[in-house]
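Hi R.,

As promised, here are both runs. First protein below:
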Amino acid sequence: MGASKSVPTREHDFEDLAERTGFSLDQINNLHKRFQWLNNHQETLRREDFEKVSHLSLNPIRSQIIQAFFDRRNFGKGGVGLVDEIGFEEFLTVMSYFKPPNKKLTNEEAEAIRTNKLRFLFNMHDTDNDGTITLDEYRHLVEKLLSTCETLEEDTAKAIADAAMLEVAKITVVHMEPHEVYEGITFEQFQQILKGIEVERKMNIRFLQMDTTPMRCGK
């Protein structure tokens, strides 16, 4: 399964992408250079191309970040499922989720951007696309985040994940009977958990600040 292989025809299409993503033309040109550096000047980008991002290799949720670039839910076109490769338009669309919001936005516009960013984060952890972040998905995330701590044993990491999920359940579920099973976090509950946290300003794209010197030297 492949992507739409959307390849901009430079200036005209870049202007259209700037309108849709909020990036300036200079930023789009810079990101296009990075896109070309990653895929050796091919038309599309594949998962293995992200191996060139050295900073990303140190991130414990590296696989979720990479998969987000190939998740149709993040392309803004109402799609579902994963693709094997993406064009520059899809790459830029996903990158726009990491773009700091414009300070001149109206309250309505700012809230729409926050909702989109939260949905992107939710999709990253709702790996089976069932509309909830389940205990297993949450446990997997916490275990990944704790994997850099060599002193923690596997059972301890699982216990921490379970305890964290129960704490979330207390916040999101008003009343639960002893026999009921907590199925997971819905998007609405996810929004509630992160209420008051400026997630939209904390998301960044530092992991793509790669060295493109070899590409420039070839010009």
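And here is the second one, sequence first, then its structure tokens:
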Amino acid sequence: MERREFVASLVAGGCAGMCVDLTLFPLDTIKTRLQSQQGFYKAGGFRGIYAGVPSAAVGSFPNAAAFFVTYDCTKSLLGTGGLLAAPHMAPVTHMLAASLGEIVACLIRVPTEVVKQRTQASPSFTTYHMLLATLREEGIRGLYRGYGSTVLREIPFSLVQFPLWEYLKTLWSWRQGHTLYSWQAAVCGAFAGAVAAFVTTPLDVAKTRIMLAKAGSTTASGNIPLVLYDVWKSRGLTGLFAGSIPRVTFISVGGFIFLGAYEKVRRTLL
């Protein structure tokens, strides 16, 4: 991967991440409160809908930039020679690149997500106070509570979203006989994101419960099957898919903005 391509991926990914996170933040707050163990209204209902936004603003650029730099570098390395260079192996390349991208990006995403979600579920606290409270009670490890569950949510999500996005772009491009415009890539991103978001909602519910749980509780230990079983036992299928409507809306609209903005900025820089 050339330096110019590296910089393009870095800037395009970061800009795309900020566009989505800040534009659609209220939907993310509603989703978090719907998934909260204390229930939607006790977690704040529609009050303080922008609670936690500073945390999202700080983390969105480096998080998205880290993902796309890793994704594009991995695609470039795997696609230059060997077994994975064959066209029919492209989905495998995209899956591996997206998975590695998520593991790296989660190192930045998880601390900002922990502070953001706790502030969303307790709107009387500011982002700064929530950060201090987390560090005081749990230390740095508290900021990485739910790292495993976040990675286990993001990898299946990316395994669905990115190969589907790349496939839809290739198919549409082949049918019309030329490279897609940025808005067309964005439409493919919206569809791929919606499918991936719905399928992985139970994992998102588990991640939210783990991040919001009191330190020392069974849920806080991060046992995903146990958390999912508890949700199933107490709230059934509706509990496992709590927040699926705002999540699918957030990610499909987000996918349109995120992947469309990424394509547009990257092409402009290249």
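A quick note on the second one: The CA atoms of residues 59 and 112 lie 6 Å apart. Let me know what you think.

Best,
J.
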